[in-house]
Amino acid sequence: MNLTQASAQIERFLGHAERLFLALANACLGLMLLLNLFNIVWRALTDRNINFIWPWTGLLFVWMSFLGFFVIYRRANDITVDFLVDRIGPRARHVTRILSDVIIIALMVLLLIEAPRTLEAQVGSMELIALERYWMSVPLFASAALIGLHFLRDLLGALGGEPEAVKHYDGAH
User: Fold this and answer.
1) Does residue 82 form part of some domain?
2) Domain containing 85: what range?
3) Model confidence over 64-92: pLDDT tens digits?
């Protein structure tokens, strides 16, 4: 298998992961809305609160954010400051692409190196949720691994002369 085929396979994998993470993030949002709607209706009918709704809403919000972390980078919806690079020329743009890929990969690797220690420090059950605290961070590390792979694929493409993906600011992909 050559570099182009490997890159295409990684791209397919990342596309599937993007769709999965987007669906999971949306499921977290939908579940948060349903749980809170149910709690509001329940309070209106019984004048009592369902105590476990709030901690689950917090957990689902964290998961939604961490799952969306990968999707945002994958779709190039992150905030970039390209106006300087655009004025310097194509060679500088290529160099900054490579440099930013390397920096992001290094940051994701650093985050993943720290993952075991972070997970180990998150002991105990979450309040009113029968899950250990470390489950809150698992989607963050999954996103970090996928973001690292995304930028590694882009770095290999940049080094191989592949043009940079066009960023769409209107939500199109």
Assistant:
1) yes
2) 3-159
3) 999 999 999 888 876 666 677 777 888 88
What's the pTM value of the predicted model, to 2 decimals?
0.85
**pLDDT for the residue numbered 81:** 65
How many separate domains does the chain show? 1
Q: CA-CA distance, 146 to 17, in Å (whole number)?
A: 8
Residue 171 lies in a domain: no
Q: Is the pLDDT of residue 144 over 50?
A: yes
